[in-house]
Design a protein that fits this description.
With 506 residues, this protein is of the alpha/beta class. Strand 1 and strand 2 (59-60) form a beta hairpin. The termini are far apart. Helix 1 (5-23) packs antiparallel against helix 4, helix 2 crosses helix 3 and helix 3 (67-79) crosses helix 4. Helices cover 58% and strands 7% of the residues. GO terms for molecular function: pentosyltransferase activity.
Length: 506
């Protein structure tokens, strides 16, 4: 079906509104949760020039494949530095593409208008937009899964070699974001169609095998580069972690253990405010199973297989349900367009609902949330440290020591100087004493000389506790985290950071 000018305008409006919801206030919010891991790993890559060995807290941390870190470092290079924008931009772009892909899949498989409604439903889903503005690999995985499904449905019976290369290449690329679920999830969604009428048999050919080998080589390339060009003493194997995170965790979970009904609870929550639509759609589809379109039955079956797969894994967390969200919204959009066609209505109320939801999302996530994060917190803390340090010397002349105290590591902070030096709590660094003792210990343990006048020492502590390494305040300027507007209004800040900046020599 050739899109009309009106169709193009409707799509452009959807994509423009989605961009506003995703980017408004994006750089004004503090780092949150797992973002600190991505930030610290990417920062160490940028500072050290070693892009093949991810480190966290001074130790090897190959918890995820390298690609999500590389996207952040590439964005940081393009934007001129690592910050909230460069950290989150790859997730934002992936979310924007996901909305477009849902539109394309919906328009391709169902009646006209289904893709547009599904796109608006996804773009105004609170938790989808929330996680799209977080620097992790989850939305990247969602985008990869949708891209592979879209590619398949462009020609499900096409057996040309380059069609296979494109499909399996997308699976390999998706698997380089978070793990082997990049291969598994699209396969589960498409399995009902492949099994129907023995369609899978026509794809058993040497061209598919050759494409699969190419995709396998593409997937292995970052791990091979890490092995060849990474540090020879790096302790972790990327492929070993793939096995641990994707196979061992599935059958013998060692963390993130949730009840078996986890996703029955969180799928409705993660599809708000449109959860009633897909729930009603599921009921309608079940009642009219033999009369509904084959594509709808395939969608329900694929969604069911995804839910069974995630439930079968003993490792469960709420946001693991994110890959199911676009398909649930597609199902809801199918029911809405079916109902609109039966009643011969244009959906004016639906458009008002999407407009209201868009305004609310921009107001909450783009304005209110960043406002509560402003005027304090880690962002202001980092700005203050850099501002005070630059008054004494250019930032590139400074070196930074991150000290872990009571199992707390300072949140991401950069000066633009040499890579920071991480001191784990297990080390015997001076808990009491004076600056000379600390600097002598650093010289001895690191095997290099630390200039006391160009070294910033940072630690983290819990609000109300005594400042860690407080003896440094005798000859250092003390800079601490100040509460944000939200923390001042609702509660005190629990985790605080403190930086000790040497006072200029008299």
């Amino acid at each position: 079906m050739i899109p009309t000018t009106q169709d193009r305008r409707a799509l452009l409006l959807l994509l423009a509104a989605t961009a506003v919801m995703l980017m408004c206030g994006l750089g004004s919010r503090e780092l949150w949760g797992a973002e600190t891991r991505w930030a610290n790993i990417a920062l160490q890559m940028l500072q050290s020039g070693d892009y093949f060995d991810p480190y966290l807290k001074g130790g090897p941390y190959y918890d995820k494949p390298l690609l999500s870190y590389w996207l952040i470092t590439a964005t940081a290079w393009l934007t001129g530095g690592l910050g909230p924008w460069s950290l989150r931009l790859s997730s934002v772009i992936a979310a924007w593409l996901s909305v477009w892909l849902v539109y394309l899949i919906g328009e391709q498989l169902f009646r006209k208008g289904t893709g547009l409604i599904a796109g608006w439903m996804l773009a105004t889903t609170f938790y989808f937009v929330f996680w799209a503005r977080v620097a992790t690999a989850d939305i990247l995985t969602v985008c990869g899964v949708l891209a592979a499904v879209w590619w398949y449905w462009r020609g499900p019976d096409d057996t040309r070699f380059w069609r296979y290369v494109g499909f399996f290449g997308l699976l390999a690329l998706t698997s380089l974001f978070k793990g082997l679920i990049g291969f598994i999830l699209p396969g589960l969604v498409l399995l009902p169609h492949l099994l129907r009428e023995g369609r899978w048999k026509r794809h058993l050919n040497l061209r598919l095998l050759a494409a699969l080998l190419i995709a396998g080589a593409f997937y292995m390339t970052p791990f091979l580069l890490s092995h060849l060009y990474g540090a020879p003493n790096y302790g972790e194997s990327g492929l070993g972690l793939v096995l641990r995170e994707n196979v061992v965790r599935f059958f013998q979970p060692f963390d993130n253990i949730g009840p078996i009904y986890t996703y029955l609870v969180y799928l409705p929550v993660y599809t708000l405010p449109w959860a009633p639509c897909w729930i009603i759609a599921l009921w309608v589809a079940a009642r009219n199973w033999r009369q509904i379109e084959p594509e709808t039955r395939l969608l329900v079956q694929g969604l069911g297989l995804l839910l069974l797969f995630f439930t079968a894994s003993g490792s469960r967390r709420s946001y693991y349900v994110l890959p199911l969200v676009p398909f649930a919204q597609l199902l809801g959009a199918w029911w809405i367009t079916r109902r609109m066609a039966a009643r011969n209505v244009q959906g004016r109320g639906l458009r008002i609902g999407f407009a209201v939801a868009s305004v609310v999302l921009v107001g909450v996530l783009g304005v209110l949330y960043p406002w509560t994060n402003s005027d304090g917190g880690v962002i202001r803390f980092g700005e203050t440290v850099r501002e005070q340090a630059s008054r004494q010397a250019p930032l590139e002349q400074w070196r930074m020591v991150m000290v872990e105290v009571d199992n707390k590591v300072p949140m991401y902070l950069q000066t633009g100087g040499a890579p920071f030096y991480y001191v784990p709590e297990t080390e015997d660094f001076p808990r009491t004493g004076d600056t000379a003792a600390m600097m002598a210990w650093l010289d001895r343990t690191s095997g290099q000389h630390w200039d006391p006048q160009r070294t910033i020492i940072v630690a983290q502590y819990r609000s109300g506790d005594t400042l860690p390494l407080n003896y440094l305040s005798a000859d250092h300027q003390v800079i601490t985290t100040t509460p944000t507007r939200g923390e001042r209004a609702f509660h005190g800040r629990e985790d605080q950071s403190v930086a000790y900046l040497p006072r200029p020599a008299s």
